[in-house]
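Human
Can I borrow your eye for a moment on a structure tokenisation matter? Give me a protein, with the fold worked out from its sequence. Write it directly below this note and I will take it from there.

Assistant
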Amino acid sequence: SNKQGATIHIARQDSILGSLDATVVYDNKTYEVVDGMILLDKDSIQVVNGGPIYWDGATVHFDTIKMAGTQGSINIGGVIGGKPHESLWLTWQIGNAHIFNYFYRDPNLVLSGPLALQLEIPALQEGFDLRAFMQSPKFMVNGWNYGSLNLNTRWDGYRRDLFLNGYLKQGKADARINGHYDAIKDDLDLTLSTNEFVIAPFQSYIQ
């Protein structure tokens, strides 16, 4: 064995403070993150188990990478560039939607509430495809509880189209959403249907 190591440090500071620190050891085609920490303002995520990661030609295999911190637990595994039935996957448990505010940063749209996420990237094809399922028992926007959220999304990289399908539920009432966003045409086509759903928190978005 002839293991070597490298230390990575990436920092960014604008309206929020963010940094990535990691130590990676590698031996031939095998890599492992032996120490890693991601900081996003007040949130921290640490690598608990960093691999190993195998590089084989145009294919990268991830033995489960585990991370944990103030944003719950995150597991990553699978394959990039593998066979058609293979994919890269990510699961995120006991997170909080407020982490999206670090990236979106719109003071008029502040997200919060407990969150779980499952994400899958199929084997690389023409374009870049991504599928995700998001769930929150208490999805909040600007401090208002919208109820429980279940949302399926799919990004079609070839057509540059984002498809959405899901619902919000408040007791026996619900609101269902279905549609897509065409990034090439910058065209949003959504259908929203409600059943005794409290629409007060939507008033600021209705023209």
